[in-house]
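hey so i finally got around to running the thing on that chain from the lab meeting. sorry it took forever, my laptop kept dying and i had to restart like 3 times. anyway pasting the input first so we r on the same page abt which one it is
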Amino acid sequence: MSSAATRTTGQDHLWSVDDHLEDILATVRPLEPIELQLLDAQGCVLVEDVTVPVSLPPFDNSSMDGYAVRVADVAGASEEYPAVLTVVGDVAAGQAEQPHVGPGQAARIMTGAPLPPGAEAVVPVEWTDGGLGEGPVSGMRAHSAAPEGASGQVHVHRPAEARAHVRAMGSDVKAGDRALEAGTVLGPPQIGLLAAIGRGTVRVRPRPRVVVLSTGSELVQPDEKLGAGQIYDSNSFALCAAARDAGAIAYRVGAVADDAETLRATIEDQLIRADLLVTTGGVSVGAYDVVKEALSSVGDEDEAGSGIEFRKLAMQPGKPQGFGSIGPDHTPLLALPGNPVSSYVSFEVFVRPAIRTLMGLKDVHRPTTRATLNADKALTSPSGRRQFLRGTYADGEVTPVGGAGSHLIAALAHADALIVVPEDDTSVEPGAEVEVVLLG
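ok and heres what got predicted. didnt touch it at all, straight out
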C-alpha cells in the first residue's frame, strides 16, 4: 500500500483497474490458520492435506437387505426349484459378532452390516420368500414383531455371483489415501468425508470477518418512513450479502450520518471484529464526502504503514475509490463509491478478490468467458475507461440490462453478468465478441 507521503499525489493520478487491484492484493494477506470443529469449519479453506487413517468402508458390508449366502448353495436356484437354506441368525449394522455361514446356511443381513464369516455374496430379500414359505416377498418384517425371521428356513429363487451386493472394504477410499488436499473449501460433502474418516477437527484458514457500513445523512433503514430528500439504505444490505456470498462472515453497521468524527469513531469501534472494513459513499469530491474527510489523515496519527489513499480510477462506474489500512493491526479498508451500481461493481472487482485472498484461495476472481453481444444498437463507452455494464448471459450470448447509469439498481437485480468494455474501445457493435464476468 502506498505510504502516507504519496497519498496526495495518488489523488491526481488516474489509476488503472489492474494497478489498483494489484495494490490491494499485494497488501492483503491470508488469515492465520486455526483448528476448528468440523461444523465451525464449513466454508473455510483447508491448509493441509488430510490422509485417510482408516479405509472406507472399514469392512466388507452388504449393500442390500437380504441374506448372506455361499455362492455354491444358490447356484441354479429358481422360483420353480428354489435353494432351501437354514437361517442361522441376523446380522445388523453395528453388530459386534456375526454368525458363521456354513454349507447350506444363510444369515439374514441388513444394509451396511458386515458380511459374516463364511458368506460370499448377498441375495436381496426380494429374491426370496423371506422365510415365510410362500412366493417372493417385497421386504422383511420388523425383528421386534417377528423374531422368528432370524431362524428357520429361507427359499432363494435366484443365484448370486461371488461378491454380489457386497461393498468391498476400501472401495471408497483406502487407508493412506489423500482424502482432501490443501486449498479445498469445506462444504457439506467434505465435512461429511472428514467425519466419516474420524476427524473431529481440522486446520483451516477462518472465514474473514467483513464489516460493511454505509454513509449519508439521507439514508433511512428499510421499514422506516421516508422523509423529504431521504432514500433507503440499500448498499450496506447488498454488500453484506455479497460478502457472505464470497465466503465471509459479514456484519452490517447502520448508516452513519455525514459527520467525520462520528464516522471515524464508528470505524474505530468496529476494528475489534473486522478482518476487512468496507465503506460505501463519501469518497467523491463533494463538500459532504465524509469518508475522505475522516480518513485522509489517519496515516499521520496511526503507526507507520497505515493510512487510506483515495484514488481516481480509469473505470466506469466506480471512478472514486479508497484503499489502505487502519488501526493497530493495520486492518485493510476499502472505501467504495455510494451509487448502488458503482458500489456493487467495485465490490465485485476489488472487494471480492480481497476476501478470497484473506481466505487463502488460489483463484480469487469470478469466472469469465467470451460471449456474443446481443443488443439492438452499439454500446458506447468513454475513452480511456474500462466500463462494466450489467447483462444476462445464456448460451454464449450476453444481453445488456438497463442503461449505464450508476443509480439503476433495478436493472442490477436482473443481471447475472458484467459486460467488460476495454479502455481503448469506445463502441461495441451488436454481434461482437465481448468479455463477460459471470456473477452467478
